C-alpha cells in the first residue's frame, strides 16, 4: 500500500470531516481557544509593547476558514500576551515591536486535534534592528532594516524590490532570517524558504532558521517539509514554551500523517 503525502492527506481529511457532518465552514460553533505567550528579545528578556497580529490560512481539518481570523493584541510589561476567541486552524502570528525586526510564525493550532482545557502556549523572540543593521560589509544589513521599515509602513512594493535585490548579499543567519520573515509578511513563502535554508546551512544548530523553514512550508502546504522543520527547531528550543509550541505543531502534523495512511 502507498502512503499519501501529507499534503494529499490534509485534503483527504477535509473530505472525511465534511462527510461526517461536522461542516468545516461552520466554525461558529467550534470550540474557542485561549492563546497566550511571551515575546522576548533574542537574549531572553520579556519585550513590552510588542504587537501580535493574527491571520488564519486554513480551518479545522485543513479546510476553509470561516471564523474571525484577524486579532490584535499587545504585550504587557513582562512581554506576556493573551487572546481569547480563536478557533482551530492554521494560524499566522505576525510579531513586531519598535527597534526590532518583525517575526512571523506559522503554526497549526488544534487544526487536527481536539483543543485542551489549558491555554495554547507560545514563546517567540525578536531580533534587535541594530544587530542586523551592523551586519554585511557592503551595508546590506542596513538595507534589510530599511526594507522592514518600509514594509511596516505599508510600502509592500519597495519592500519586495529590496527583498529580491538583497538575494546576492553576503549576510549572516540573523539577517537572512529577517529577510525570510519579511518574505512571509509579503506572503512569498518560496522566497522565504530560500533565505531560511541559507541561514540553516550556515548555522545548523540555531532553531530560528528551522522554524522559518517550517513556517514557509506550512504556507505552501508542504507538510512533509514542515514537520521536519518543526522537529529540528524543537531540538534547539531555547525554553520550554518554545518546545511546547513546536511539540504541538509536530503532533498536529503527525495526526495528518496517521490519517493519511491506508
Task: Give a quick precis of the structure.
The chain has 262 residues and is α+β, with helices and mostly antiparallel strands. The protein is 44% helix and 19% strand.
What are the main properties of this structure?
262 residues; alpha+beta; Serine Threonine Protein Phosphatase 5, Tetratricopeptide repeat; three-stranded mixed sheet; 44% helix; globular
Describe this structure in words.
The protein has 262 residues and is α+β, with helices and mostly antiparallel strands. The chain has one domain: Tetratricopeptide repeat domain (Serine Threonine Protein Phosphatase 5, Tetratricopeptide repeat). It contains nine helices and seven strands. Strands 3-2-5-6 form a four-stranded antiparallel beta sheet. A three-stranded mixed beta sheet has the order 4-1-7. A hairpin with a 6-residue loop joins strand 5 and strand 6 (103-109). Helix 5 (173-185) packs antiparallel against helix 6 and helix 8 (223-235) runs antiparallel to helix 9 (240-259). The longest helix is centred in the C-terminal third of the chain and has 20 residues, at 240-259. Mean pLDDT is 87; it is low at 12-29.
Amino acid at each position: 500500500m502507498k502512503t499519501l503525502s501529507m499534503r494529499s492527506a490534509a485534503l483527504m481529511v477535509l473530505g472525511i470531516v465534511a462527510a461526517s457532518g461536522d461542516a468545516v465552514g461552520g466554525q461558529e460553533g467550534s470550540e474557542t481557544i485561549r492563546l497566550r505567550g511571551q515575546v522576548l528579545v533574542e537574549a531572553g528578556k520579556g519585550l513590552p509593547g510588542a504587537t501580535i497580529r493574527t491571520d488564519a490560512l486554513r480551518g479545522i481539518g485543513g479546510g476553509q476558514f470561516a471564523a474571525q481570523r484577524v486579532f490584535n493584541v499587545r504585550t504587557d510589561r513582562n512581554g506576556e500576551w493573551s487572546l481569547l476567541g480563536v478557533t482551530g486552524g492554521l494560524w499566522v502570528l505576525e510579531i513586531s515591536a519598535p527597534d526590532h525586526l518583525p517575526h512571523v510564525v506559522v503554526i497549526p493550532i488544534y487544526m487536527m486535534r481536539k483543543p485542551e482545557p489549558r491555554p495554547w502556549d507560545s514563546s517567540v523572540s525578536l531580533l534587535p534592528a541594530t544587530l542586523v543593521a551592523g551586519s554585511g560589509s557592503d551595508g546590506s544589513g542596513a538595507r534589510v532594516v530599511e526594507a522592514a521599515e518600509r514594509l511596516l509602513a505599508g510600502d509592500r512594493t519597495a519592500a519586495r524590490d529590496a527583498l529580491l535585490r538583497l538575494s546576492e548579499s553576503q549576510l549572516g543567519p540573523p539577517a537572512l532570517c529577517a529577510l525570510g520573515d519579511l518574505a512571509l509578511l509579503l506572503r512569498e513563502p518560496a522566497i522565504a524558504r530560500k533565505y531560511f535554508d541559507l541561514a540553516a546551512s550556515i548555522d545548523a544548530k540555531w532553531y530560528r532558521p528551522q522554524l522559518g523553514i517550517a513556517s514557509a512550508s506550512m504556507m505552501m502546504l508542504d507538510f512533509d517539509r514542515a514537520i521536519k522543520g518543526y522537529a529540528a527547531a524543537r531540538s534547539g528550543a531555547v525554553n520550554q514554551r518554545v518546545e511546547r509550541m513546536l511539540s504541538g505543531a509536530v503532533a498536529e502534523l503527525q495526526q495528518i500523517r496517521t490519517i493519511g495512511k491506508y
